[in-house]
Amino acid sequence: MTVHELLGAWVRALPPGLPPDGRPDVPAHTAALDVPCSRVTHDSRQASPGSVFVALRGFKDDGADFAPQAIAGGAAVVVAERAPGAPSSVPWILVSDARLALAQLAAELFGHPSREMQVVGITGTNGKTTTGYLVSAIFEAAGITSGLMGTVTYRVGAREFAATRTTPEAPEVQGLMRQMVTAGCGACVMEVSSHALALRRVDGITFAAGIFTNLTRDHLDFHADMEDYFTAKRRLFEMLPEGAPSVVNVDDPRGVTLAETVARPVTYAINRAADVTPGPLSFSLEGLEFDVRTPQGTVHATSKLVGRPNVYNILAAVGATATLGIPLGAIEAGLKRLPGVPGRFEVTSSSADDITVVVDYAHTDDALRNLLETARPLAPRRLITVFGAGGDRDRTKRPLMGMVAARLSDVVVVTSDNPRSEDPGRIIDEVKRGAEPETRQRGAEVLTIIDRREAIARAVESAASGDVVLIAGKGHEKYQEINGRVLPFDDVAVACEALEARRVKSRVG
Length: 509
Description:
Structural class: alpha/beta
Helix content: 25-40%
Shape: globular
CATH superfamily of the largest domain: Mur-like, catalytic domain
Number of helices: 15
Oligomer: single chain
CATH class of the largest domain: Alpha Beta
Number of domains: 3
Number of strands: 24
């Protein structure tokens, strides 16, 4: 596809009835545009001969200011929301929404790969990653090769690599989907973040189904308030084509609101009447076992996943795949095959240890509460929680996390998460502010250890036989961001080192 052909296809695909100023003015056919389109990009550093540079307005900078660098790199055309400050040597197309244009151009360049797969989009505050792994495992059990895009990993056929962000920018999303189709994938399961929805990264994708897990406080450094946060999440369901199911958790108040407005709701719940509900639940550290009642029939769910929050994730995955026509036997097989999800209630201790150590990604007050309520009935003795809060992010959740940890734990070790550019000591003080009323009332012990490695080591070393140690906040992450530096750090590896040191000390003793 040449640059001119791409621009023409883009304009032809726009919905009819747009006002004249809403339709981009495509330049006339010239030799300069009659070259193969190498890429669509919003990063001037990635511009190459034959590329289309889309200038996005950022929170600090305007991409149009970097157009000269993109042109110097070979960009054949610039798409922007404002006119150039000086005469441009390449065509300059004005649009009202550059982010939408970026998504539309990327979809055209890669030939709309989402139309060649069943794409399931999952949004919500908590549970997206685990639900994504479950849906993907079910597709695979049904003989449908499934691509995966989410917080932990991107999987394209047999290849897998670490995710850069939950939902990447539109050109990367479309490029990954085209690779999935080429690799023989018949399905793609993707987490869809509120940022991605608000910033139009997934516009141009044809979704086969959408899943809403829940909505709790998070990302209020980006969204104006909870209503704005919900509005962003709701966009996924507004994008669904006619007939595509919206699988919605109606135990969540926002889910009830959503189910009342979508065209084809498929509801799931534990505590109220819904289309998809569980039978009696069996909980243990070994996993879950229960029946799932669906309009298509009953699924017997056996899973290595632990705790009540994962019941919701299983209900969502079963509801979506059963509605999409996956055989119930394949659903059961997929649930049973999934060994677990990296950094989601990941047990790092073994039968050789006299304590249980769990690593989890919980990094909001609601997720931390769910984690602690899952672990509490499984802890024969004390519950020791190691956690922190991220820097340069929503500060309002810090005291709430401290309050939840002190209310539901016997010992709390407040440490660093990813402090980023903030003073880790100040972040810890804000967390402890929420813990103080609970410690006065319940008498929970609260310790402060800024160094995360030392905090984990101290918690494991000081635990008594039968204690459960929860290490929360970072889960699968392999790094720690401190003062502008990204340093290697893996909670699972550090926990394993601490457990080995405890075993050695026990043997020597």
